[in-house]
Records
---
Amino acid sequence: MMIQEEIQELKVARKALILAHNYQPGEIQDVADIVGDSLELAVKAAEADEPVLVVCGVRFMAETAKLLSPKKTVLIPAPDAGCPLSDFLTPEMIHDARQKYPGAAVVVYVNSSAEVKAAADITCTSANAAEVVRSLAAETILFGPDANLASFVQKQVPEKRIIPLPPEGHCYVHTAFTEDQIRDAKAKGWRIVCHPECRPPVQSASDLIASTGGMVQHACDCDEWYICTEREMGYRLKKLHPDRHFHVNPDAICKDMKKTTLEDLHRSLRDGIFEVEIPDEIAVPARKAVEAMITSRRREHDRA
Ligand code: SF4
């Protein structure tokens, strides 16, 4: 029997749901029940009936799923898959910044550890960051760990002061995109979409700035795209829209996202490993920060 078939059998036997991030290798996306961005995965996982969630992605994604599904068993097949961007911000940095800027609100990107979320007031995604910041009463916002996303939000919400925490926080995959690459892609007549984790000059040179969810939403707007994000997003988009062309940078690879293999996933389902556990003293405030974002999103949708 092929490993993919064994995975499907184990999944049914364990009553598990397989979740894969958009940046996971194609063969993992192919066996997953749900493919999406980190929040989409966590929210859909919480709504699902399955008592076991297997998160194919990096650690903060599995933690977010656990925060929103505290009673479920959450497994991560590649426990050493981290996120160098999330490592830029620590709870101590947030505590220090709060002393320096009393009255400021702390917004952290979901790409952060559970400990960092626990120290924040509210979380955000790249899709709703501006909306979350606008919803807060505070005029000064401490925003981390991605300084490029902070800069994007500052442009969208000029009435507030956004302080990036730390000023050098970035994702090495997204900051590798250059203005030259954009120029070359434009010369070929392709439309450019970049993720807000790209540097501000790349954002300015692009036709559209969008989260991975936004990229899925706008995929049909034209025939030929240049996608400035992790290269596997091209696989996901092509699967959804086989009639469109999605050009990617083949070197835009997140090494941690590629740590999950079919063998890891098989072992995870077979042996029930590796279970994600978050101590209550971190889980309770971290969940509050994630739920604050979900409530703010619902309020916005109700208003729209
Ligand atoms: S692509 Fe960047 S932000 Fe996403 S998991 Fe990898 S290092 Fe972290």
---
Amino acid sequence: MAAQHDQADERELLRQTVRQFVKTRVEPQAMAHDESATFNVELLRELGALGLIGVTIPESEGGSGLDATASCIVHDELAYADPGFALGYLAHALLFVNNLNNAASPLQRKTYLPRTLSGAWVGAMGMTEPAVGTDVLGMQSTAEKRADGYVINGRKTFITNGPEAHVFLVYAKLADRITTFVVPRDTPGFSTSAKIQKMGMRASTMCELIFEDCRIPLDNLVGTEGGGITNMMRNLEIERLGLAAMSLGIARRCLDTMVSYAQDRATFGKPLAEHGQIQRYIGESYAKVEAMRALTYNVAATVGPTQRNRLGTDAAKLFCATAAKEVADAAVQVLGGYGYCAEYRVEQFLRDAKLNEIGGGTLEAHQKNITRDLTKR
Ligand SMILES: Cc1cc2nc3c(=O)[nH]c(=O)nc-3n(C[C@H](O)[C@H](O)[C@H](O)COP(=O)(O)OP(=O)(O)OC[C@H]3O[C@@H](n4cnc5c(N)ncnc54)[C@H](O)[C@@H]3O)c2cc1C
């Protein structure tokens, strides 16, 4: 019982720490980075200094030794102010750092963890290819083994943090088996494309990764040859939870904005909050936020480095992605013309929310996974 209290206190402290940081450091820069479509790397380093990059990494490896619930708290709070920045953080902290830590050799831990846990180096992960997204197992990038290392050829696309990253976790087929490699930016044969412009999440950036006879030493194999699918699937679960938590942060922000606006703005001689149709937007949005919170944190409690819950993480992201988009849309509607314009930022949250129906698995991919898992039983 005492241990449970300690854990609850620790999580509350974490939430208050992140909330304070978000208010003073994240909120003030968010609109400018949405407008300029740039990722704030210095802000990521500030999170590193607070120990918030290694939330899921054991203390023995230099992390904070917390868990998937703590990771959700950070993503939820960051997305309340800046979903795009939260996505860049997710790509760094979960897609690179957490993924690497789960399978890395002692040498790889020593080489990459300290630099990426502090944010001195930015990380990214390359799975998707120009011709292969949902059907990821059909990837076409190849790795060939030579006496002194591996040679990678292929192209990855839509890679978050690609333009800024110093180091990449990359999946390629070695003798037709998906395998994970770590590739520093200065590796011969590696390059990146120009930035890819996008609709939302503009405070994070993305580009293609290009491998042309890219030579890496044998030491850059992560885990085992052919072990890439396990790394990928295990990490997709915590990624989906992070995206579900970001959806929750987006929806909380949009709900708060519409509630406040509906009290201040009057039409036909009374506040918007007294019009029944506006009450429907607010009431339904509140119910969605509460459902998102319950589902996301319930599932988070069942996920860990040795604990898998594919069904739960698919369900959390499937539900939360669409619910957040609906709540953001309701906020735009409640604010009318002000909602459609930039000042209150709800139009930005609507653009940002849409990504979570696509990235980290599309809605259709979640529907198929859930049905496959349920019909197997
Ligand atoms: C902003 C952003 C950031 C991203 N960051 C990263 C990153 O950091 N690293 C990375 O590796 N990837 C990243 N991605 C890629 C993302 O994971 C893919 O876009 C996603 O998995 C979908 O793949 P796709 O775009 O190729 O769509 P496709 O697979 O071509 O699908 C197109 C449409 O068809 C549907 N569809 C496909 N197959 C089926 C089927 N069998 N049945 C029914 N419907 C189907 C899909 O659901 C979708 O609606 C990012 C994408 C975006 C937009």
